[in-house]
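Example record

The entry below shows one chain as it appears in the dataset: sequence first, then structure tokens.
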Amino acid sequence: MSIEAATLYVVATPIGNLGDWTARAREVVAAVDVVAAEDTRHTAALLAHFGIRAQLLSLHEHNEEARIHTLLERLQGGASVALVSDAGTPLISDPGYRLVAAVRAAGLRVTPVPGPSALTAALSVSGLPTDRFVFEGFLPARSASRRERLTAIADETRTLVFYESAHRIHDSLHDMAEVFGPAREAVVARELTKTFEEIAADRLGGLLNWIVGNEYRQKGEFVVLVHGAEPVERELLDDRDLRTLTTLAAELPLKQAVRLATAITGRPKNLLYERALQLRSESPTEE
């Protein structure tokens, strides 16, 4: 195949089953001048399986900034570069976005060579709504920070998608059940496309028991998908309450106007505050 000079190819690699690596991806990696890999040992083993010889250069979260200059110089000199991660599509919870941004800023071409992704693979078999979803990647490692993040998205109505590691899957499911409620529908996809692939659908409480019930299930790589929250009917202000808020907001500082409007109308303070901010933004600025 024809490889373009001065081009960065973003190449997806298998997430488990080596048969999923596309012919085009193999051809690109075999033909470029340099392969920038998250773990050169891992990528070397993958290439050896397919009989591919390539010049490998490490690029991971700890050295990405330092590698950008080197790779930009190679690209500006006319070289072609393939960016790969250990598994799946690069930049999806993997390093590489700084490099891509720098290459694009330099006016050079970046082109995708699509393929496997644990994110889309899990969504496709989850049975949860997939028309709109939110990818959260890996949650914080510490429980307090993890719960804080989960609380911040507890009212999200779109399907939530997380990556999780073996040593945190139990604690993360526990925190999800605590924050979202044990009755929230969810799916755990484990070791996708690999020999011991498992996809379990249940409520969060049931999935937590499923993980606890078999220590072997706590091994491997995980995608956790959680059904979005049920939409809440947005409360609106009637004309009388709106007039009260508008009058007070015109004469008083914002916080004081909202406090008095809350006392007079009995409506939720956060609702009144949000509406007051909107009124202020819509008001013409005095010269």
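Notes for this example: The chain has a mean pLDDT of 93. The CA atoms of residues 91 and 97 lie 6 Å apart.
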